[in-house]
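Field reference: sequence -> structure
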Amino acid sequence: MSVGLPFFRYHLDPLASGAIRAAADACACCERNTGWIYTATFYTAVEVNGRFCPWCIVDGSAAERFAGEFTDSYGLDGVSEDVVHEVTRRTPGFHAWQDPHWFVHCQDAAAFVGEVGCTELAAHPEALDQLRADMRLDGWRDGNQLEHFLTHVGGGASAMLLRCTVCGAHLAYADAS
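Structure field:
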């Protein structure tokens, strides 16, 4: 993470994920040019002209002013309302083919690490095993097809890697176009 940017507990490096980038754009919320701008999703029924700076995300002012959320609360079952609000309204979302979502582990939301291919995923066997089990539950019955898919993650499909903020375990879900 770049020095001077705010810390996001549930999105570890929004620069690396592409959710925040250097830009000369003024923030649609505070109207300041901070040198950084958010580039991923924002869900609202209110018209927003422009994008937000990281500070208006982390302090919740962008979500409050424009009655919106940076990500859906899907997957955040069993955590406090404060955690749901921090993830959905004070944490940058991330780019994905499908709607992004968070996992819960050790009674807390997991932190988004990034989009990974098969090599990076293989470095986290617990995430790979969890992804394999989840995909079987989702209907992947043919083990050979499943393993073929998992060994080719990185082209038209990727894995979204998250890490438990309590125990450090890695979790993943498949994302494809």
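Note: The chain has two domains: 1-96, 103-177.
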